[in-house]
Amino acid sequence: MNATVLDELEVTEEEEDDRVRGSVSDHNVAYAGYGDQPQAGTVLLVEDEDFVREVTCEVLRTCGYRVLSASNAREAEGIYRNEGLAIDLLLTDVVLPGETGCDLAKRLQMRNPGLKVLLATGYGEQMAKLTKSQELWLAKPFSREELVQRVRQKMERPALQETESGMPAAAHGLQDLSWNLA
After folding, report:
1. How many CA atoms lie within 13 A of 25 on its CB side?
2. Do the beta carbons of residue 138 and residue 120 sit within 8 Å?
3. What pLDDT is stored for residue 50 in this prediction?
């Protein structure tokens, strides 16, 4: 059974800061464990939980990805304005303060139809009911292996441009997705 990233990194409060600041490779996470070659590409990670964001960034960086991180949609928009087409993948939590990751993804894909999206959520059952494909989302909590595998799969897929309806192809599956936890 795979332990989750957070389960594997259960620490006391005193150790938490040291672990987040330290190299993830010091904690048995090296890209060599996920393949022989470091990966390439830029990921915009949007996660409001500081610890989850830091650990996820370190895992992806250790695998060779360039990672830009934000704690909310507004910060992500600012990063996107500066980086734009250099961003290959948006990896966002679905539930964010102020607005959903789904809304952020839709908006960014309208600007860049080739932007790949992976939604992370602790509401896997609800997401499964809302989307036709599990390719669009990653259930939380996830293991390091699941994270790296899903990001790699998304990065390796060719960027799609538009569907027959004119909707960005990467947004296919997002257009009807509204997230309501009420």
Report:
1. 9
2. yes
3. 97
CA angle 149, 143, 148 (to 5 degrees): 25
DSSP strand E in 85-163: where? Answer: 89-93, 116-121, 137-139
CATH number reported for the structural domain that contains residue 50 in this entry: 3.40.50.2300
- Would you state the structure tokens that stand for residue 69, as one six-digit string? 């991180």
**Number of neighbouring beta carbons within 10 Å of residue 109:** 22
The predicted pLDDT at position 94 comes to: 93
Task: Find the domain containing 126 and state its range.
Answer: 5-23+38-171
The reported pTM is 0.71
| pLDDT tens, position by position, 137-177 | 898 999 999 999 999 999 998 765 434 333 444 444 554 45
Instruction: Give the separation between CA 28 and CA 31, rounded to whole angstroms.
Output: 10
Q: Position of tokens 């996920």? A: 34
